[in-house]
């Protein structure tokens, strides 16, 4: 092996060691812009213990499960609609309203679920949280055929 070959091998080894040290040795001055940040929650949300409710009046069965936590930035209601006789073509957000025990009414922010159509739909109806926490809430969902409201009511303070 000639001196030139030895110099090349030593040079490659030095470069490999330098690159390895740069990538594997912690250094506070090395940029972290290519690393994914880890977000640690500051506080765990405590969800209220609320039961699912079903209403089988008429030709559509509606089941609602509230997912509400104090301090959350949104209140969610998991909703399932089932039928064997009519098309589920309603805009769920447009036919729903949330009421509190002080006569306040609240329109949903968004429906995150199946689009209109078919005989089975499910999704999440999202509302802004009500503060302060009311004693009770009522979710009314109007039946598109006869405009009769299906009513679901929960006691929130008792669920804490």
Automatic annotation (TrEMBL):
What name does UniProt use for this protein?
Answer: Uncharacterized protein
Q: Which UniProt keywords apply?
A: Membrane, Transmembrane, Transmembrane helix
**Annotated transmembrane regions:** 7-25
